[in-house]
């Protein structure tokens, strides 16, 4: 073996790791956020959790990646530590699939169909199919499948290069001397652990061992400790992922490495008994790549069966190894763990969950703010303030996380979901701001003992009912991703706009007739402005949901089409809501005449009317200035 063989060995390992990484990333991308729903549904029993761990690991081709995912889920409070134990055990079994596929390289046959099972024979065909799907596929799903196939072909090509690179080792005396050291089981475990820890892939280290076995120089006694060490070394990735997380989340890698170490100790005891006490001769025989795959599976299955009844004890062990401190119990829960970015589909679903929380908070806060005008409560006002703080926090965290997430490789549905959330979170936060504005209005009216006139209050009840419905429709359509419900929001928003205009006009009439007090003018106008703005934000969210369905975010053109009467469904819904939310029958107020009016009374009435009109205009001017400033801030003016 010369320096070129060494380069070939390193290059083959690089191809192997690259192919596995490509496969893992695109398999996870295609799985998307379904992994989270599976994790939540199937951790109710030990056997379901075992199956789940195995299936997810096979799907993403990495037990380490699953463990890192579990660390993030526990750190975010989505899963409890008890739910992760059997999932980890299942992942240890799922990771053995790669070794079984690689063992096909040892097939020797003149039969065409059997020889085609060898990776070096079928991987070029897999690569060809993958490239055709990437170049000719019209849908992104087909392109992703093609990328997975190419990744698999590169992995197999790397395995072939490694096998060819190590073939001269069988004739080297120096290599035989190194193998003598491997014959010591303790050293074998340590070497397997170190090598796997460096490359952070047990599948790759097992693959290298399988390549070495093709030289015919690796015995069963040498291979078994190396396989045990490889299983311990794969925990390094999980240990590194535990840096910077809560102590509760640190227990996940503690359980993982505990399972591997306990399993290795048990198997080593059995190894010493069978090899050195019983002196079974098969330990000195040569092992094949298939034999390595068999023991890799036997080791993990045996460890699982041995430790499964003691899953609760493993949790207790982790709690003792990583005890919680007082400050840990008081520290706030992490909202979105950055480790979830390693699983973009799962991260999208977690963001969706938190955005739904924002939607519900926005709806509830504005509902409570409106009830303050009926019966003021300081406790409710303080609760609204707390909800607004939570909304601000959620928006900041989600905005930062979603921007980082949008730069990842996402499936089409997930990419649309991220765009939808980025558009919507600001609207939900602004609804919370309007709830605070309404709370301040209610506080001012309560402090000054002011009340709207009976006529105004009757009209506001209709407006409040319409706002209740549009908020419920908006939140429900977002939570269920229901564009059918979202289609009804914009017609109702138009009705609410008309209602606010009518109420404003009626208020001016009452103000001019002297029925309403001038100081209530600004308060009522602010009230109506906040209501109108809330319906606008509901419309923004609903239109975004509809545009996501059409994979387009041309909001203005869509709204123009609706308002130009190009959609019959819109007109029907608008008429239905207008009939449902009609203001009480309006009778224009009559001016009161004073007795003893002289011939100049007409002139006096006109003067009085001008003064009242001036008061109404003065009352509306501050609000107009506020609206203009808000529109400038939003970039509309």
Automatic annotation (TrEMBL):
This is Na/Pi cotransporter family protein. The chain crosses the membrane at residues 6-28, 49-75, 81-102, 122-139, 145-166, 178-199, 219-245, 257-278, 290-310. Its main location: membrane. It comes from the Bacteria. SUPFAM superfamilies: PhoU-like. Residues 585-637 are annotated as: Disordered. One of its GO terms (molecular function) is sodium:phosphate symporter activity. It is found in: Cell membrane. GO terms for biological process: sodium-dependent phosphate transport. The keyword Transmembrane helix applies. Residues 356-440, 466-542 form the PhoU domain. It is a multi-pass membrane protein. InterPro entries: Na/Pi_transpt, PhoU-like_sf, PhoU_dom. Keywords: Cell membrane, Membrane, Transmembrane, Transmembrane helix. GO terms for cellular component: plasma membrane.
